[in-house]
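Quick one, T. Sequence first:
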Amino acid sequence: MDSLVSTQWLADNLGSPGLVVLDASRHLPAAGRDPRAEFDAAHIPGARFLDLESLTDTASEVPSAIPSPRQLAQRLAELGVRLGDRVVVYDDSAVKTSARAWFILRAHGIDSVAILDGGLAKWRDEGRPLESGMAEISAARVPDLPLPEGVRSKAQILALLEGLSEQLIDARGADRVFGTGIDPVHGGQNGRIPGCLNLPFGALYQADGTFRSPGELRAAFVASGLDLDRPVVTTCGSGVTAAVLLFALHLLGKDDVALYDGSWVEWSADPATPKQQGPA
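Structure tokens:
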């Protein structure tokens, strides 16, 4: 299974043994949307609701931290996902939250996971079948998962600024990264980590919500100033859309990448961290 699958591929493979479809929709508070209620009303047949919003490590000091191995194993077990299953994640979110789910699974060593290109919106627009309700699921047994890889902490980012060993790139809109004033999404001041590049995640998609071609993705990263021959750490507001950049880099065959999980919410809240505002 490729890392990016089309709606036609999924339609052809729905119901195949060992194939699990997860709805990873999550929305910003301002959207006023309830992903669980929307899933209950209409979802891809056989899909299971991941409840991505609750899949965070509440014991961590990092806001909305990646779940612990035990938390993720428990959630997968509840959803009947067995290690070795092929997993397809999709969303119906403006912030493309399936990429966050893809990252969480991959970080914990689950490699056979793909994103549905275009998500639920494309599936629906093509007139493909939907179903409602929450089906009963037989729980699975999921063994211990490894500690997550590819996650950077605030301390590691501070060290990165000293050594310049990895490049930083921010997935937020340029108005939030290079502007002043209050961040319209998370509150706090607009701004960026010093030296951080910028590529708004929305620039990686076509009008129908599918990813741009590899050539277009590569050109977008190069235009941002990123050196694709050097390691990369992605960031954003809270660690969600940063995963879109990671996934796009993965599509280009680049996996010497990591995600700063705390992102700007954590960084901006600490008065001791260096910050930049205004034009680069």
